[in-house]
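INFO  loader      accepted 1 record
INFO  loader      residues=84
INFO  predictor   begin
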Amino acid sequence: MPRVSFRCAAVLLTLLPFACPGTASSAELSDAEFKRLHAELQPNDSPWLTIPWKISVLNAQQSAAKEDKPIFIWAMDGHPLGCT
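INFO  predictor   done
INFO  writer      dumping tokens
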């Protein structure tokens, strides 16, 4: 389950009135405020980028054998938006 920071939760709670029309607040969201909130909601860390991914299974097997590490293979069948 993804970890949500306090700042992200606060921004989401701030945006809640805009997502539910006719509730507590009907204030307009300015372009500057939107840009600030959008920038704040972007992920700032990508740990998956630190992994030395291999495209070739043979290269991965050789590297794993040298380093005595396992191989993780991600495989799927079908269309990427509707995995079958």
